[in-house]
Fold these 2 entries.
Entry 1:
Amino acid sequence: MGNRAEEAKQNQEENNGNMAIETPSIPLLTPYNMGSLNLSDRVVLAPLTRQRSYNNVPQPHAILYYSQRTTKGGLLIAEATGVSDTAQGYPDTPGIWTKEQVEAWKPIVDAVHAKGGIFFCQIGHVGRVSNQDYQPNGQAPISCTDKPLTPQIRTNGVDIAQFTPPRRLTTDEIPQIVNDFRLAARNAIEAGFDGIELHGAHGFLIDQFMKDQVNDRTDQYGGSLENRCRFALEIVEAVSNEIGADRVGIRLSPFANYMEAGDSNPEALGLYMAESLNKYGILYCHMVEPRMKTVGEKSECPHSLLPMRKAFKGTFLVAGGYDREDGNKAIAEGRADLVVYGRLFLANPDLPRRFEFNAPLNKYNRETFYVSDPVVGYTDYPFLDTSSYVTKKKH
Ligand SMILES: Cc1cc2nc3c(=O)[nH]c(=O)nc-3n(C[C@H](O)[C@H](O)[C@H](O)COP(=O)(O)O)c2cc1C
């Protein structure tokens, strides 16, 4: 046998022993420049509330959780983080309005940066999705409305979440809330984050203002589409002026009706927001797919984010029910620049690597999404044993 043939045979044998997987690059694993940030792939960690930030302070166990999910040049979005002491509605969710919280975020952000990751903080306010136990001095939660939310079954499917009827913000109070977002954005940069994502999705405060099922105001923040979006856009402007539009993204879910926040014309709402955001030149717009009617349930539907994708001039992120195949298609067809993964990334700390090898995925366990254990269901999902896979790609 000639040298070549021998080499080929040897390679083949080696490959057979190694399950012979050679990985051509897939669309999800191609690089992308988001503004001045050079991303090495299109697979983004979704903001995922994990309720392990005791007393609203991020904990050291989050260092391991986030760094497990970091790759060089990968984008991560931190879990929803409260902008003020009225912003909370769930146990042990992190905040970013006190010095202590900012200091507590620093080692977490440092760990992500040490591995070359790019880290955005999702900042938000729950509005009426709260009750007086989470509010300072037992006061009523604030919202655009005083319409109460009906009790909801919690994600564990057993407990019922009770909500205190909200207090409608007066027109004069709104600039203070906008200012809370501005300060939180400043704090996020102080903590070392590369930018912030405004939580404008899922029925929380910003979404409550935008959606006509909730917003019943008669001032300049209610009524017309333009008026309902005013609060969101004032926040976009304030945070952009504070930290630079190139460090600002926003998450929107125009089609979702989670927490009784639906809209009678979600296409018009999504399009109006996408077009309006162009005025501020923000870095990205992150939209939840219409098929996600609630946070964790997928159902096929005829609507699409394409008109918003076409209208928005910055980077477009999509989320909701994506797997490897679906995500590759979205990138290949130009329907998105980046694909955001929630539950799959939660359960697979090395998700981009598994996509590279088309390897099997760990199954997520809903039961441990929100338990307060610092390890179980949090940092104990196993990594892929890559010894049986061969790759040409360097990580
Ligand atoms: C445990 C859990 C926590 C979540 N927390 C947040 C959150 O803090 N902020 C947010 O915008 N969405 C949150 N979501 C929604 C996800 O970001 C994502 O949009 C959703 O899971 C659908 O994407 P997936 O099908 O890839 O999981 C959460 C979802 C789950 C399952």
Note: DSSP finds eleven helices and 14 strands in the chain.
Entry 2:
Amino acid sequence: MSKIVITGGAGFIGSHIAEALVQDHEVVIVDNLDDYYPLALKQRNLDCVMAKGNATFIRGDITDLELVRSVIDDTVDFVYHEAAQAGVRISVEDPFKPNNANVTGTLNVLSVARDAGVKRVINASSSSVYGKVQYLPFDEKHPTQPVSPYGVSKLAAEHYCRVFYEVYGLPTVSLRYFTVYGPRMRPDLGISIFTRKMLANEPITIFGDGEQTRDFTYIDNIVKANLDLLKTSAADGYAMNVGGGHRITVNDLIAHIREITGSVSEVVYSDKQKGDAEHTLANVGLASELIGYKPETTIGDGLRTYVMWHRQGVKP
Ligand SMILES: NC(=O)c1ccc[n+]([C@@H]2O[C@H](COP(=O)([O-])OP(=O)(O)OC[C@H]3O[C@@H](n4cnc5c(N)ncnc54)[C@H](O)[C@@H]3O)[C@@H](O)[C@H]2O)c1
């Protein structure tokens, strides 16, 4: 049994990682329960974790260095660093908030983890680090030119992780997540908004012409990649893609959800949003080579499971 700290463990991805670990490990969740989306959803996420086993929850902010020191001490083996101000659009409105949480917060986590002798910090990064597309699929050699303040903050955090490995010998791995979806997903993400509205037959808005493409990754694939990193040092020092390995247009995504739900929602096209990436698609070759990563769940199966979860009447 290891002692594992999960920053942002009340959020979508962090709570799934916690849920998968809580039976076999001592799990400590630190999260400031930020009000970016409703607190009730974070409480629900925590309840799902606690229903599986005993985790310790600490309400605290990772920008507070003393707080981080009190959570990550020399009894901690691994840290999953999921806490962040996620979301591209909010970062365009207020670039300081993601910078504080994602850059300063990450620096706090890394410096304390180094001092505490943590065995590995696994950092949630993002496909947003790529930004401007020069070719697809993105492999890790693709230039990183973020197109949003959020992307800049995730890239800075990744560089800090690499540098802490190279300069201080703290084992770190950054996983570049590609648009993650599934039960309990963030309510501000496209699949969540479209599904809620389409189940209610309400009009949906697509920003742009809907021909932008996304590589959507089912949550189970992300959890597995994270858990596999407890067992191997093969990826230490790396940043690597964990995506679905396929892309679809937003118009096709709507068509899939329409087919599953039978919705008659009207589609309204609106202006493209600043900061949104045009296309994403992951080459997952590096993660496959280093940790045997293989995205098992197809978009069709993943969407069906997600819609079924909604239909069970659970809050989005
Ligand atoms: N969901 C995706 O599609 C996606 C894609 C790429 C990268 N990511 C990254 O994955 C991680 C998890 O994303 P998510 O979708 O689960 O988001 P989320 O918002 O559901 O979870 C993040 C959690 O971090 C907490 N948090 C925010 N600022 C904090 C702070 N200063 N101190 C402590 N806790 C803080 C929030 O309260 C929240 O519970 C983030 O680092 C995000 O940038 C997510």
Note: The two ends are 33 Å apart (CA to CA).
